[in-house]
Amino acid sequence: MSKRLMRITPKTSEQKALGLIIDELIDSKKPDVADAIYFCAIPHWFDEKILAWLRDEGREPAERTGAILAELAELAFISRGNRGYVYDKNVRNRLLRDWRENTELLQNFQELSGMMAAYYADKLQKDELSEEQRAEWEREEMYHLLVADEGRGIGLFINLVNRASQLYQLSTFDLLLGLADEQAVNLSVRNRH
Which of 31, 98, 110, 162 has the fewest beta carbons closer than 10 A? Predict the structure, then answer.
């Protein structure tokens, strides 16, 4: 057992213990897998295409990306969801907190969020999307823009909220508020309300 894990005692808080375990796990992985663990916490879900996009490979995943995804899929805190892989909520929240609170990582977090916004903007260019799929991609683009480009993110948020309001889509309105609330910590003080 490592020195880091030996610091976990019955008095260690659950959050602190989780952080120590995650740090130990990340340190035990190859650098590209360790990076992917952090990168893939940014989107709500991920698959090989999203991982490739975050690795700046564009639309075509490299062979190594598939191997990285296979390693991620074996981690206990990652499970298969409807669209791809998802993190355990507590683990994702812990990794996102690392991104947001570490000033050295914050610029990378904004850049990667911008890459995710661009990914969803790219997806929106496809004509064959259903209305439901288009709405989901717009929400995801807005979510990531709130970090990457606050002004554009808020503008898109307002447009989506207005559209939901006009169509009396209260559940969509509630979903948009929840997504914006998740990113509120990243917003400037004047825009948090």
Answer: 31
